[in-house]
Design a protein that fits this description.
mainly alpha, Arc Repressor Mutant, subunit A, 2 domains, 14 helices
């Protein structure tokens, strides 16, 4: 029975990989690579299960076990909600528990340490960290109220890993529930592969966000020029703080830069992924926070500081601030009692 589930999952996974590879240019690169890595790791884990290896009996494919799948899936959800376009180097740190786990497995294979206390403590630490990843992934999905269909995979997967970790802490062995773990994880993986494939067909953006398509198809603005204008615009905002002018318009900034208005709009929408007003309000909210920390504004009211940094209306200010910082301006101010 397990072999049938493995074969079905393998066929589904290979078909899913072919769909992804054919359409890879239409997806954001970092999200695509993380999903691709998750699926490949899952397939290798399915066919290379320690106790029920489909092709190589008694093989131990620990490189593709839960630690790698959990880490990749955690990062996939993280980037899905962060909207970042490039993989941040600091996020490689999330692979430390996986590398630690692999190192311990290699040491055990080479030296046959068995139930060495330090090896066990190391495995427990790596396992607990991965459970934290799973817990945070579940929390992120529930908090953002999107892609909740993924919980059908992550919650049971977390539960099985929790059982395995508790069992290891109590008995110093991962073999107590190997049958349940194998059937459970392989079965859950097969369901997830089917669900991802289904979602890619009926609602592709719920799995992978689309790559940004150039909105200005007739524009003569080249990428190199756009990047130069982007740098000039950001420098202008940082150095001269034009956003403090509450009546500032995109035309005025374009004239200041000596470029056509449509070029600046294209830089903002395509390369900075924001419209002019939202970007100005973002700068204003950040400047507001800096002013809160400045003794010069100690006797200013909240709205008084907001007006100083370029906000014209209280509603726009409150909406923008809460969207960026997650709390109202007055709530944020209360976190700075020693300054104000």
């Amino acid at each position: 029975m397990l072999e049938i589930i493995q074969i079905i999952a393998l066929i589904q996974g290979l078909f899913l990989l072919s769909v992804l590879l054919v359409k890879q240019e239409s997806y954001k690169r970092v999200n695509f690579l993380l999903l691709l890595g998750s699926i490949v790791a899952m397939l290798l884990n399915i066919v290379g299960d320690d106790d029920f290896n489909l092709f190589f009996p008694n093989a131990n494919w620990y490189f593709f076990q839960s630690p790698l799948i959990i880490t990749l899936f955690f990062l996939l959800i993280k980037y899905h909600h962060s909207k970042q376009d490039k993989f941040q180097n600091r996020d490689f740190l999330y692979f430390i528990p996986y590398v630690f786990f692999i190192t311990l497995q290699i040491i055990d294979d080479v030296n046959g340490l068995g139930k060495n206390i330090w090896l066990m403590i190391g495995e427990i630490l790596a396992g607990v960290t991965l459970l934290v990843y799973l817990g945070y992934t579940i929390y992120t999905i529930i908090k953002n109220k999107t892609e909740r269909w993924m919980l059908f995979f992550i919650v049971p997967y977390a539960f099985l890993n929790l059982i395995d970790e508790v069992s290891f802490i109590v008995t110093s062995s991962h073999d107590n529930f190997s049958f349940l773990e194998s059937y459970g994880i392989i079965g859950i993986s097969a369901v997830l592969l089917y669900m991802i494939l289904f979602k890619l067909v009926v609602s592709p953006t719920s799995v992978l966000p689309k790559a940004d398509i150039k909105a200005y198809k007739t524009s003569s603005l080249t990428k190199s020029k756009a990047e130069a204008y982007k740098r000039e615009f950001l420098k202008l905002m940082d150095k001269e703080k034009l956003y403090i002018n509450s009546n500032l318009t995109v035309n005025q900034v374009a004239q200041r830069m000596g470029i056509p208005r449509q070029y600046l709009s294209e830089v903002l929408n395509v390369y900075l992924k924001s419209n002019f007003q939202d970007y100005m309000n973002k700068y204003r909210a950040e400047e507001f926070v800096e002013c809160l920390k400045d003794e010069k504004f100690k006797n200013y009211s909240i709205m008084g500081i907001a007006n100083e940094v370029g906000f014209k209306s209280k509603s726009s200010f409150n909406t923008t601030f809460k969207k960026i910082y997650g709390v109202t301006p007055s709530e944020f101010k209360k976190t700075l009692p020693s300054i104000i």
